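Appendix C: a fully annotated inverse folding record. The material below is reproduced so that readers can follow the format used throughout the book. The structure is listed first as tokens, followed by the designed sequence.
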């Protein structure tokens, strides 16, 4: 039986705006990846052929920005500002003051230091079956320069709020996020304990490794072989 993950809102008007609805990750492939050719100018195979990228993009459900929002912070004055459109009283953006984290560590993303953390109070709630949690993952491959979203884990079978932490990476600059912008990716997983085994490979392990050794030397997986392996595994 297939499990169900629920995305619920107590603000019904959201349900009529398609661009803000949670959607599977496949709807949010980065434009640079979609535009990349499969063969480069010197006849080299590009990352467009690597199955790890689409497999990552396809994971879970993406929640986009539910409203336009502007955030601003000054490290000189410790002043923070949030601006939402008129009529957006239902939504709110607060903050996690620097005394909660940034005074003790400097979170860095894409080579830039975080200056402040805004808390996006989400109008969405998540409910998963008992034993299931979600990873909250940033949209890493969007390569945003002015902000980054923080990752985490939420046990959504007992706690259903999913407020998001936006790390402000610039200083004294208005950062605008347009409604519909993908913010975070929620990937459900079933909680279980797994024990690491460290050692040398058995003969069975060696057979598994050698089957694929030729396909990883000097290039991305060719001829759809990786996909064939996935399909075969899923049949077993």
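Designed amino acids, in order:
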């Amino acid at each position: 039986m297939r499990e169900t993950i629920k995305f619920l809102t107590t603000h019904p008007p959201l349900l009529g705006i398609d661009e803000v609805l949670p959607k599977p990750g496949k709807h949010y492939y980065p434009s640079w990846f979609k535009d990349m050719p499969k063969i480069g100018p010197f006849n080299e195979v590009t990352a467009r052929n690597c199955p790890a990228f689409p497999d990552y993009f396809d994971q879970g459900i993406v929640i986009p920005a539910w409203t336009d929002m502007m955030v601003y912070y000054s490290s000189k004055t410790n002043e923070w500002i949030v601006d939402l459109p008129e009529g957006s009283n239902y939504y709110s953006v607060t903050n996690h003051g620097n005394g909660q984290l940034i005074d003790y560590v400097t979170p860095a993303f894409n080579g830039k230091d975080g200056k402040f953390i805004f808390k996006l109070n989400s109008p969405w709630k998540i409910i998963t079956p008992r034993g299931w949690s979600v990873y909250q993952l940033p949209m890493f491959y969007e390569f945003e320069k002015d902000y980054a979203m923080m990752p985490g884990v939420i046990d959504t079978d007992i706690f259903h709020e999913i407020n998001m932490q936006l790390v402000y990476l610039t200083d004294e600059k208005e950062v605008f996020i347009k409604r519909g912008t993908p913010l975070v990716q929620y990937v459900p997983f079933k909680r279980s304990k797994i024990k690491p085994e460290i050692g040398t490979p058995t003969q069975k392990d060696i057979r598994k490794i050698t089957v694929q050794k030729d396909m990883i030397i000097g290039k991305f997986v060719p001829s759809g072989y990786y996909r064939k392996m996935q399909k075969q595994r899923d049949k077993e």
